[in-house]
Structures are given as structure tokens and as C-alpha cells.
Write a structure and sequence with these properties.
Bound molecules: adenosine-5'-diphosphate
CATH superfamily of the largest domain: Histidine kinase-like ATPase, C-terminal domain
Number of helices: 10
Strand order of the largest sheet: 2-1-7-6-5
CATH topology of the largest domain: Heat Shock Protein 90
Structural class: alpha+beta
CATH class of the largest domain: Alpha Beta
Shape: elongated
Order of helices and strands: HEEHEEHEEEHHEHEEHEEHHEEH
Number of domains: 3
Largest sheet: 5 strands, antiparallel
Radius of gyration: 29 Å
């Protein structure tokens, strides 16, 4: 029980203050009975029957009271077994002779970002090691084979292939980490999507010819979108490149552009190897490859679709896939069209 009116007032003032913060706050008396809580604490479900439900948090408050100091603890917290687990930072401090305040900050998103960043760095180191050690081995082999022109030619070709792969990997890593920063990087402009798609086709023409894959397209002019044309071009290039790479010689790739409501839709369809249903979500993750050995053959980095996804999201759009193994795949990139009124609104 809170013994004095003064303590009650202190608790009420503290909670009022907490309402303006993102941090959840609970105030307990000497018996750990909850005197007051902020609405964020209510949302998080920290309190039940006027008690803080987590024994770890109760111990934290006891410790703060015993040591008369502020104590911080990071822990996982869930309201009940059906609720999502939150990663929280909790701090308990004496508020008065009698009262202890418990501040709980939801750090789930920050922790997830930190883990993503750490995984990314680990993956990069792993992916870079493979071509780097191949280059070093090939250079050694070249030194040994100096008297054999045939061998020299073979090793030099392999050396060139591996260094190209390394270059492509580094470029994609840089592109992806820039895009992931969230902002559109290049100049923001209104551009004709059809021309950008045509450019991306052009960039893949040599690859398609050398693989014996035909690209047919229907990309009408005058469909305008606003954003970073370079980024959308890169995304389109990746989608068309994949369609060609994961197809056999003699097959066709189709690229289409239409408008559906407020969105422009670019579709890239191939008759290639397709993607198993249970992997279709995962292919947009960084470094994910359905068949790492085939992907290695094609010089894949596992980053292309991740770049496409981020490019689409950064433009307020998305990318989806429809695919059946051995029949082929269709990737659809959707981004909002630019309306004339948008221009007028901007000018006002
Ligand atoms: P990669 O550089 O390995 O192609 P991506 O991120 O572009 O990396 O693609 C991830 C994986 O998705 C690929 O390794 C491949 O397994 C699969 N994939 C992507 N596009 C296609 C496609 N058009 N047909 C079949 N599989 C594809």
C-alpha cells in the first residue's frame, strides 16, 4: 500500500511524464504492488492483477531497492506464451523512499537490425573467401605451369573468370548496402519506365545471344514513374539476367509492361528451371540460392533478387514470383505510376 498522499502524487506525475515517451513505465510500492503504469506498459502487458508478471523484472526492482541504485537488464519478455517475444531493456530505480520505477524499452527491432547487420558481414566474409582463395590457388598453379602454354592458357582463363566474379560480388555488395540504407541514392526524377526496361534488356542482350536465349518484349512508352531510374534499371537488369541464366539454350524470355490501377507492372517470364514452391519466399533473402552449385556455375552471387526487393520497396512497390519447377518463372515488379496531379501538388 502506498502510505502517503505525497507518494501517490509522485507516482502520478512520473506516469504522466512517461506518457510522452516510447518507454513503458510501472511504479510499485514497497510490497511490489503496482501503484501506477503508463499506457505503453499496459500495451506490453507488463502487469497483471497489480503485479509485474516477470520474475526477472521483480528481482530487478528488489535489487534496485536493496542497493539503492539504478539497475539495468536486457531480457526477452512475452506477455504470455501466445504473444510475440520482445527483446527489452529494463531499468529499475528508486523513485522515493518507498516507490520504485521500472522503465522498459522495447528493443526488438534494434536487436533484429543488429543481427541482420552481423549476419550480413559474416556472409560477406564467407562469400568473398571462396573467389579470393581460388585466385590465390590459380596464381600458384600458373607459376608451376609456366613451361606448358596450354595449362597457362587454361589457368589464366580461370583466373579471369574468378576475378570477374569477385568484382561482380563486390559491386553487388556495395549496391545492396547502399540501397539498404533506405534512401533512394541517385537523382529522383520522373522517368519513362518502358525506356528503362528497354535499356535493361539491351544490357542483357549479349548474354542472351551467347546462351541462345531469345528475349521478346512489349514495353509501351509513356508510362511514367518517379524515383531513381538507375536503381530500377539495376533491378530490371537483375531480373532479366536471372531469366536468361536459369534457362536452357533455345528457350524464350518475355518482358512486358502494363498499368494496373495506380501501379506500373513489369513482368519477366522465362521457360527455365523454375523454383520449388517452398523456396519462393527465401530467394529474396541475401545470399540465398536454391542450388548453390548451379548458381556458382552461372556466377551467381545470391544478391540479385535482394537488390530487386529493396529497389521495389524503396519506390513504394513490391516484387512477387510465380514459378513451377521445370516449367519456368514469372517475376512481377510493381511500382506506383506518376500521376500528373502529383506534379501539380509538388508545384503548389
Ligand atoms: P543469383 O546471383 O544466385 O542468381 P539471386 O538473388 O538473383 O542470386 O537469385 C537467388 C536464387 O533464386 C538463385 O540462386 C536461383 O536459385 C533462384 N532464381 C532467381 N531467378 C530465377 C529464375 N528466373 N529461374 C529460376 N531460379 C531463379
Amino acid at each position: 500500500m502506498v502510505s502517503s498522499q505525497k507518494a501517490k502524487r509522485v507516482a502520478a506525475d512520473a506516469v504522466e511524464f512517461l506518457e510522452v515517451l516510447e518507454t513503458a513505465g510501472v511504479i510499485v510500492d514497497g510490497d511490489n504492488q503496482v501503484v501506477n503504469q503508463s499506457s505503453r506498459a499496459l500495451e506490453m502487458g507488463l502487469v497483471e492483477y497489480e503485479k509485474v508478471i516477470s520474475t526477472e523484472l521483480v528481482e530487478l526492482m528488489n535489487e534496485a531497492r536493496r542497493t539503492k541504485s539504478s539497475i539495468t537488464l536486457e531480457l526477452f519478455f512475452a506477455k504470455n506464451f501466445r504473444s510475440p517475444k520482445l527483446y527489452v531493456s529494463a531499468r529499475a530505480t528508486m523513485l522515493s523512499e518507498e516507490l520504485v520505477i521500472l522503465l522498459v524499452e522495447d528493443r526488438t527491432e534494434a536487436k533484429r537490425l543488429e543481427e541482420t547487420r552481423r549476419d550480413f558481414v559474416e556472409n560477406i566474409s564467407h562469400e568473398l573467401k571462396t573467389p579470393i582463395s581460388a585466385i590465390s590457388l590459380l596464381a600458384e598453379a600458373l607459376q608451376v605451369a609456366l613451361d606448358d602454354p596450354e595449362q597457362v592458357k587454361k589457368f589464366a582463363n580461370n583466373l579471369q573468370r574468378e576475378s570477374k566474379r569477385l568484382g561482380a560480388l563486390v559491386t553487388k555488395i556495395i549496391q545492396l548496402s547502399r540501397i539498404q540504407a533506405g534512401d533512394l541514392q541517385g537523382e529522383i526524377e520522373v522517368f519513362d519506365l518502358g525506356s528503362t526496361v528497354d535499356e535493361a534488356i539491351e544490357l542483357n542482350q549479349f548474354l542472351a545471344d551467347s546462351k541462345g536465349v531469345k528475349i521478346a518484349s512489349d514495353t509501351p512508352a509513356d508510362i511514367f514513374v518517379m524515383g531513381d531510374a538507375g536503381l530500377i534499371s539495376m533491378a530490371m537488369k537483375n531480373l532479366i539476367e536471372n531469366a536468361v541464366l536459369y534457362s536452357d539454350s533455345g528457350s524464350n524470355v518475355g518482358v512486358g509492361l502494363t498499368v494496373d490501377g495506380d501501379f506500373a507492372e513489369v513482368t519477366v517470364t522465362d521457360q527455365g528451371i523454375g523454383i520449388p514452391l517452398d523456396q519462393q519466399e527465401r530467394i529474396f533473402e541475401r545470399f540465398y540460392r536454391v542450388d548453390p552449385s548451379r548458381s556458382r556455375e552461372t556466377g551467381g552471387t545470391g544478391l540479385g533478387l535482394s537488390i530487386v526487393k529493396h529497389a521495389a520497396n524503396n519506390h513504394g512497390g513490391d516484387v512477387t514470383v510465380f514459378s513451377r519447377p521445370n516449367l519456368g518463372s514469372t517475376f512481377t515488379l510493381r511500382i506506383p505510376t506518376h500521376q500528373e496531379e502529383d506534379n501539380q501538388k509538388e508545384m503548389q
